[in-house]
Amino acid sequence: MRILLVEDEPMLAQQINTVLVTEGYAVDIADDGITAERLALLQSYDTIVLDMGLPGRDGMQVLRNWRAAGMRAPVLILSARDGWTERVDGLDAGADDYLTKPFHMPELCARLRAMIRRKSDQPSPVFEQGDVLFDSRINQVMRAGKSVRLTAQEMVVLAYLFHNAGRLVSRSELSQHLYHHDGERESNTIAVFINRLRKKLGDSLIDTVRGRGYMIKAPE
Questions:
Q1: What range(s) does the Response regulatory domain occupy (predicted)?
Q2: Which end of the chain is more exposed for a tag (fewer CB within 10 A), N or C?
């Protein structure tokens, strides 16, 4: 899963980034409103964390511009403004959730997971397909009741496919959501991760449509 973090306070941005990377997300960081607006219109993100008090362009205006341009990624506002009118303005501008500073990191992560599930129309944090169970809250994978150890990148690929169960996902899309925007994106490495997942979780979990991509079937 790929997240855009928009925060101009360096220490807080680094703290959030560390937590999100540990949770298995690929994170791009912007520290001003103009850069943030450009990135979200050029790249595809699973969700965005947006601070309101930004240099260059205010977060509220950035959000309005995103929505006016048709950008549909869910947005979580971070703000030191805790008045109810600010929350109403943020939600009316197109935010999906609002978190007041200071906050606890586990709550931030839980809100992001909930937003991603709503986006993919997956109400439960626990995904099941055959004898494979994936708990997105704790990044735990079970097969036939036994825990399976995955690498961080294997976990990201599996999570993205489960969140998009029933939809064909191309190699390039998986690659885009696996790496940072300025990082290396070798789509052929996705095939390596898919093969590793099949060895650990069974050949039947992930379907391949030759030349087009991969899919986990939607639960019946």
A1: 2-116
A2: C
